[in-house]
């Protein structure tokens, strides 16, 4: 006997028997499979991030200001130390700022470590357009 409008709840679709196969159970999910896929995706993203950081990150180039001296109306001498890979070289950007924080001069300098050495100590004069208050190293990157 086929279903009629009198035996079916209003709003429910009516399908001919045997025509569309067996219907799936509602609410049947696979949480373990979904969790494994999320874990695999996160692991792949983590490995990709680690590879890119090791390839393009430059944690070996660190600079620190030792002192800044020789302050006049037109210059400041900056003594700084740079950590580089053994025997490597770095290009550092030095900056001089006035008392109000405005940049009054900057200079780029390349330093090279001796064979087998990782630390370079250098002194560089930064020319300025006004009297500086401080001399600093903004960043160092591989020379080239």
UniProtKB/TrEMBL annotation:
<keyword id="KW-0472">Membrane</keyword>
<dbReference type="InterPro" id="IPR025443">
    <property type="entry name" value="DUF4307"/>
</dbReference>
<feature type="region of interest" description="Disordered">
    <location>
        <begin position="1"/>
        <end position="26"/>
    </location>
</feature>
<dbReference type="Pfam" id="PF14155">
    <property type="entry name" value="DUF4307"/>
</dbReference>
<protein>
    <recommendedName>
        <fullName>DUF4307 domain-containing protein</fullName>
    </recommendedName>
</protein>
<keyword id="KW-0812">Transmembrane</keyword>
<keyword id="KW-1133">Transmembrane helix</keyword>
<feature type="transmembrane region" description="Helical">
    <location>
        <begin position="32"/>
        <end position="53"/>
    </location>
</feature>
